[in-house]
Amino acid sequence: MNLSRTARRTLAALTFLVLALVYLPLLVVVVNSVNPSQSMTWPLDGVTFEWWRRAAGSEGARDALVTSLQVAVLATAIALVLGTLLALALQRYSFFGKHSVNLLVILPIALPGVVTGIALNNGFRTILGVDLSLWTIVVAHATFCIVTVFNNVQARLRRMGTSLEEASADLGAGVLTTFRLVTLPQLRSALMAGGMLAFALSFDEIIVTTFTAGSGANTLPIWILNNMFRPNQAPVVNVVAVVLIVFSIVPVWLAQRLSSDVEAVR
To answer: Within 13 Å of residue 40, how many CA atoms lie on the same side as its CB?
Structure first.
């Protein structure tokens, strides 16, 4: 499609405007993390890493970071196992209600977080009689992390076809052997990409966490929410926010690189 010079410039300007709206606030947070002023005035009077030193010495921030990492790793592991099994079942086998099950699997990612949080809170406390804890956060995060793994694996299975698996079966390999030696190696990059995205989703999740966290479980986003309106903590919150940005962007970038590599090979 050929576009006029005016149309190209208009599209370029709109793209730049949208990117500026998205990333300029993030840049302000990064700059304020080295702002010497506690009130975060502009322009900067200089550059200081005092807030980074205080953030590193904050026991609450360190504990919240460790909790977020634990939750993200466990939720990602659960999502990798269940998401892969669901994708294999729905892509490789036909059964009654298959399309309805497919919709139910991807629905949690589309539901508002507050609805998911209320539903899980009621489920844990009222139906199961379970006290809220670190494990309830893990299970809650896994419910929507499964979708990212499921979508990546299902898309890869659809492109792979079944010829190699059928050839393996014809040669006498069982289901598990075929999965280990034929299917799994072809799914490796899709699993890694889905796992990275699931980790990023879990690490910065706050709404569902608010409804499913016990009194002793405090993730990094919850710690930021509890401290951002305290004047003395505002600069330290900016530093923690920068850490959160890094832990969220890097997995997404790696997932994109993995997907790009696979497409390039194909």
So the answer is: 17
